[in-house]
Amino acid sequence: MCGIFGIITLKPRAIGKDLVAGGRRLSYRGYDSVGCAVLSDGKIDLRKDVGKVDEVSKRLKFSEMYGDRGVMQLRWATFGAPSRTNAQPHLDCNGDMAGAHNGNIVNTPQLREQFIKEGHKVRSTNDGELCIHAVEKYYDKGFDMIESIRKAYEDLRGDYAFIIFNDGEKRLYAVKKGSGLVVGVGRDEMYCSSDLPSLLPLTKKIIFLNDGEIVSLSPKEAKFFSISDGKEIKKKTVSYRKSPEYARKGGYEHFMLKEIHEQPTAIEDLVELLDESKYVDKFLSFIDDSDKVFLAACGSSYHACLLGSYYFGNIAKKFVVPVVAPQFISQYGHAVDDKTCVVLVSQSGETKDVLNAMNYAKEKTDKILGVMNVIGSTLMNSSKAYLPLAAGYEVSVPATKTFLNQCVMFLYLAKRMAGESCRDMGELSKLVKSTLNSTTRDCKKAAAYLGRWDELYSLGYGSTYGIAKETALKIKEITYSHCEGMYSSEFKHGPLSAVRRGYPVMFISSPKDTDVMVSHINEVTCRGGKAIVIAERNESMVKNADELIQLPHSGDYFSPILATIPAQLIAYYMSTRRGIDPDFPRNLSKTITVD
Ligand code: M6R
After folding, report:
1. Domain locations in the chain?
2. In this predicted model, what pLDDT tens digit does every residue of 288-305 receive, in sequence order?
3. Which terminus of the chain has a lower count of CB atoms within 10 Å, N or C?
4. Is the pLDDT of residue 13 over 90?
5. What is the CATH number of domain 3-248?
C-alpha cells in the first residue's frame, strides 16, 4: 500500500537522500511507483515514475534533490493505473503546492469532475491529486493552510493521510483520517511518515496523530490542530529506545526463506516475552470477564484466529468466535455490547478492515484488545491492552513468522487461562527447528509435483483447519495457482468431483484426528487422486498417504504449529520453481490500508 514520508529542515540540504531512505523503509508495504517533490530555490522539483525505489531514484537522481522541505511517496495503485502521471506526489494547478497521500478518496469520480468543471488542471486519474486541488481551492480563496485543509477534509470522503507544502510558508502540513501518520522530532528538522519504524533511524522522539488532526511542522516545532474546531491541541512526545533491525537477506535467496528459518528464534523470543510480561494476566482478565469474545482479523491473521479459537475452546473451555474483520461488523455487529471483548489480530496493526472493526466495536464496548507485530501501530495505540508478537521485522509480503507467532501466542494464552503450565512451550522452538531440517527435502519433492498443477486443495480437520486454509492462501499468494483450503469432511459435499488421476490434494492432520483423516484420504486416493499428507508418522498414515511429510512427535496442540513449516516450504519452493519472487507477489501489498 502507499507510504508517505516528509522532511522539513532548517537549512537547505540534499534531503533527497533521506527521503529515498525513508521511502525504502516503507517499501515493505508493496507499491508500483515512486516519486519525490522537494522545494528547491523557491521552486518545486518533482520527479516520479513507475518502478522500484532504488531503480527509479537512481534513474531520476532523487538523491541529488536539494532543498529544505519535501515529500516522498510510494504508490500502490487503486484509483488510476500505475503510470508516471498517476504516480505521486502531485502538484496543484500552478505548480506552487505539492503533496502526496496514502489511502482512498472514495468520492474520486464526483470530485474529479467537479474540480475539472471549476477549472482545475487535473492531470491524472489518481485520487491523491484531488487532495492537493481540494486544499488549493480554499487556499486560493484566501484561507490559510490550516483552514484550507479543514475545508478540504469536508470535501474528501474516505480514509487517508496526506502531506502537503507550498512554495511560500516554510512549513510542512499533514492530516490524518483513517490512515497511519506519525511525526518525528529531530534537531532543527522534523519528519512525518506513514509508520513509526521508518522514522526511528532519524529520531527516537515520536508524536502520534489521531484521526481528525492536522500537524503543521516547521524545522523547530510541531503544532497540532483539531479538524473539528481548528483549535490548537497539545500532544505528548514519546521516546523510543531502539531502532528496528532493517532486514537483510543474510545469505538466503529471499526474505521469505530467511523469515521461515527465523521462526525458532521468533518463537523463543515470544515465549520469553510472555513468560516475563505482567500484561498477560491483564489481557486474559478482559477475555475471562466477557460473555462474548471475538477474534477479528484478515488473511493469515484470521487463519491464526481459527486455530486460536480451537485452543481457547479445547484447552481453556472458553467460547471464542473467530471472524474475518469486515464480517464481524456485518454478521455479529448486532451482538456486540459492553460485555463483549473484541481481540483484533494483525501483523501490521494498520490493516484498514481490522481498524474498521475496531472502531465499530469501540462504540459498543471498551474491551478492545490488540495483538500485533508492529510496535507503535494504530492498533497498538488504540487498544485497551495489547500483546506484541515479538517476531521482529517481517519484510516478505507472505506472512510466515508472524503467523506462527500468532498461533503460539494463542496456545500460550489458552494454557495460561486454563491454569496449565506453559513450561513445555520452551520446547516448541527446538521442534520447529527440527521440522525445518527434517522436512525440507520432502517439501521440495512435493513442490515439484504440486507445481505441475494449476489447481489443488488443502484440507484440514479440527485444529488443522486454520493451517489448511493458511496453506492454501500461501500457495495462491505466491504461486498464482488456485488452491482451496477446506474442512476435510466438506470435500465429499461437492469438490470431490474434481478428483481424477493424479489430482493433488494436501491433507494436514493432527495425531488426534488420524482416523477421520484416513477415511478422507481414501475418498481421494480410491478415485485416483494423489494424497500428500503432512502429519506425524503412524502406521495408518504411512499405509494410506501417497506421500507423507513427517512431523516430529509433539502431540495434538503443537502439531498444527509444526505442520505450518512444511506448508510454508512447499509454497515457497512451488513459487521459486515458477520463477516468481515470493517476497513481492504481483498485485499484493504487505499492509492493506484500504477498504
Ligand atoms: O497486517 P495484517 O496481519 O492485518 O494483514 C492481514 C492480511 O493482509 C495478511 O495476513 C495477508 O493475508 C498475508 N500477507 C498473507 O500472507
Report:
1. 3-248, 252-421, 436-595
2. 999 999 999 999 999 999
3. C
4. yes
5. 3.60.20.10
Annotated catalytic residue within 2, 341, 443, 483: 2
436-595 is classed CATH 3.40.309.10: no
Residues with CB under 6 A from ligand 1: 298-301, 346-348, 351, 354, 397-399, 473, 477, 591-592
Indicate which residue's Cα is closest to atom 14 of ligand 1: 398
- Give the relative orientation of helices 559-577 and 465-479 as an angle to the nearest 10 degrees: 10
* Catalytic pick among 48, 401, 530, 590: 590
Distance 556 CA to ligand 1 centre (A): 26
pLDDT over 70 (residue 448): yes
Q: Would the pTM of this model clear 0.85, i.e. be above it?
A: no
As a whole-number percent, the residues of the chain with pLDDT over 70 amount to 99
Please answer whether residues 171 and 222 qualify as being in contact, where contact means their C-beta atoms are separated by less than 8 angstroms.
Answer: no
Q: Does the pLDDT of residue 227 top 70, yes or no?
A: yes
Query: Best substitution site from 298, 305, 354, 470 to test ligand 1's pocket, by max atoms within 8 Å of Cβ?
Result: 298
Give the other-Cβ count within 10 Å of 498's Cβ. 16
The letter for the amino acid at 191 is: Y
Distance 258 CA to ligand 1 centre (A): 18
Give 146-189 pLDDT, tens digit per residue: 999 999 999 999 989 999 999 999 999 999 998 889 999 999 99
State the average pLDDT for the chain. Answer: 94
Answer whether residue 412 shows pLDDT above 80: yes
**Ligand 1 atom 15 nearest Cα:** 398
Instruction: Name, in order, each residue with C-beta under 8 angstroms of 184's C-beta and a sequence gap of 6 or more.
Output: 190, 191, 192, 193, 199, 200, 202, 203, 205, 206, 207
Examine the pLDDT at 246 and tell me if it is beyond 70: no
Based on the residue annotation, tell me whether 93 is a catalytic residue of this protein: no
Q: Collapse the DSSP code of 402 into the 3-class scheme (helix H, G, I; strand E, B; otherwise coil) and give the result.
A: helix
Note whether 321 and 294 are within 8 A (CB): yes
| The CATH number of domain 252-421, selected from 3.40.50.10490, 2.10.70.10, 1.10.3720.10, 3.40.50.2000 | 3.40.50.10490
Neighbours of 444 (CB within 10 A): 16
